[in-house]
Amino acid sequence: MNFENIIAQRNNKTIYRDGDRVIKMFCKDYSKADVLNEALNQARIEETSINVPKVLEVTMVDGCWAIVLEFIEGKTLSELMMENPSERNQYLDKLVDIQMEIHRQTSPLLTNHRDKMFRKISLSDFDPMTKYELQTHLNGMPRHNKVCHGDFRPSNIIITPEGKHYVIDWSHVTKGNASADVARTYLVFLLKDSKDEGEYYIKSFCKKADTPRAYVERWLRIVAASQSVKGKKEEYDFLSNIVNVVDFR
């Protein structure tokens, strides 16, 4: 394996390109169960009609777990948006189209989104009454079984030179209500201080999917509480403000 060409780096993982393969290397203290679950999630998504890089291998290198994937040549939607700002809205429309394509899929063995959100709310730092209210709110939401990416954003879409799209980073995928996935993407834009892009995105999705915006926003408190568990201090006040209002708008 060649570890000279770093293509991305985060706190707990480094991603390398090795010819026609991508090596996703995790830090030594990263959970073995989480690595294996991520590879399993990706393998299950491969069984749908969604275009994803194939898992080639799960291995250990110098005591670190690594997932080896097929390399996809191309640029991310976020790169294309930066390079062509006048076409931003067209790219956001494409983002919506791809997300709707994902939501048309099912994968029965995926983790249930409701169960995952319930656990995350329990792990949050909010007071017991707020947790109880959020979990009650969650239990009252409609139950669906659609594939939900869980971290759907422009940087997780690769467009090949031929115009074919691939969706990457399936570590957070679940089955559940599509509007929860949309609320999560909308929150990503807000946290990036990209409110204009977020507004265009959510309006485009609601129009294309014929879904009331108020219905999507009913999920915002839940996904904000879930995001707070990541422990990013710079986000906490913003997320708390969302969690502590009944009507987001």
Which helices and strands appear, and what pairs or packs with what?
Elements: E1 6-9, E2 13-18, E3 21-26, H1 32-46, E4 55-61, E5 64-70, E6 75-76, H2 77-83, H3 88-103, H4 113-123, H5 128-139, E7 146-148, E8 157-159, E9 165-167, E10 174-176, H6 178-191, H7 195-209, H8 213-217, H9 220-228, H10 233-243
Antiparallel strand pairs: 1-2, 2-3, 3-5, 4-5, 6-8, 7-10, 8-9
The average pLDDT is: 95
Structure summary, number of beta strands: 10
In helices, the fraction of residues equals 40-55%
Major sheet characteristics: 5 strands, antiparallel
Q: Low-confidence spans: pLDDT under 50, at least 5 residues?
A: none
The largest sheet has its strands arranged as 1-2-3-5-4
Order of helices and strands: EEEHEEEHHHHEEEEHHHHH
Radius of gyration, in Å, reads 18 Å
Strand content: 15-25%
End-to-end C-alpha gap = 51 Å
Number of helices: 10
Shape label = globular
Q: Helix/strand/pairing class, anyone?
A: alpha+beta
Can you tell me about this structure?
This protein is of the alpha+beta class and 249 residues long. Helices cover 46% and strands 18% of the residues. The chain contains ten helices and ten strands. The chain has a five-stranded antiparallel β-sheet with strand order 1-2-3-5-4, with helices on one face. A three-stranded antiparallel β-sheet has the order 6-8-9. α3 (88-103) packs across α7, α6 (178-191) packs antiparallel against α7 (195-209) and α9 (220-228) packs antiparallel against α10 (233-243). The longest helix is centred in the middle third of the chain and has 16 residues, at 88-103. 33% of the residues are buried. The model has no long low-confidence stretch (mean pLDDT 95).
